[in-house]
Amino acid sequence: MLQDVPEYVKKAAKIVGTPLRDDEVAMDSTVWIQAALFVKETAFAYRLIGRGIRPQFVAGHSIGAFPAAVIAGVLSFEDALRLVWRRAKLMEEAYPEGYGMGVIIGLTKAEVQQAVDRSHSEAAPVYLSNMNAEQQIVLSGSLEGINRAFQQAKELGASKTALLKVPIPSHCPLMSGISEQLLELVRTFPLQEAAIPYMANHTGRMLRAKDKIAEDLALNVAYPVRWIDMAAVCVESGADCFIEMPPGHTLSRLVKQAHHDTRQIAVDEVGLEAAEYLIRKWKEQEE
């Protein structure tokens, strides 16, 4: 993941005090996953801005909220990475095994909640988590609880269920204690008001106030990500083109499903030069 951003990898290693792992083994640790995602996304966003492409809004899903805050000018790269590193360490230490996340496709929020209610127990907790699309909803909790919920969801008519490659139960009440620690930590960093509107993960609303954005960065680990609302607010505020930083293209496809008239560019698929070309071409057509 990090082979094409060596200058940022070197910078990140100095900040966290150890070289970043970037291999198959690293995919089993949320610490290395979160660090790599933050570095990769931030590096490519900076590169696009360096080409003269400046976003009107920034929106990140879960760990992506931290690169979004950096690009908005709220936190420095260095302080955001320190916060990401601490976040990941706390999450991994709290739930080293037996927990994770899964996705249910083809049911409404009410139906998924019904499956969760039938499956949750104190010994094997499971919670409704991220709202990615109207009928793509994430669960978090114990693997036992998630698998029970999958069985209930299939009985209710779900078209697909799948465990995600996320070894921790993010975005649910199991992370409440961690979010409180992160809130104390983020308040120790120098913060700036957002130069670019920032979409909040746990409310789906648009923010500029540094204190509110800091709160969102800390709390999003314990609350569902309201991606569907974040995208809708961007569209309502005039956004018609969404550019997704590497890696992947999942978020741009989710936006396309919900907002057919918008355009999407996944930089991972087309590359920086093609992304810049398309954006400039579309802007010229509008003018």
From TrEMBL:
It comes from the Bacteria. Residues 1-282 form the Malonyl-CoA:ACP transacylase (MAT) domain. It catalyses: holo-[ACP] + malonyl-CoA = malonyl-[ACP] + CoA. One of its GO terms (molecular function) is [acyl-carrier-protein] S-malonyltransferase activity. GO terms for cellular component: cytosol. Its EC number is 2.3.1.39. The keyword Transferase applies. Keywords: Acyltransferase, Transferase. The keyword NADP does not apply. GO terms for biological process: fatty acid biosynthetic process. It holds the Pfam family Acyl_transf_1. This is [acyl-carrier-protein] S-malonyltransferase.
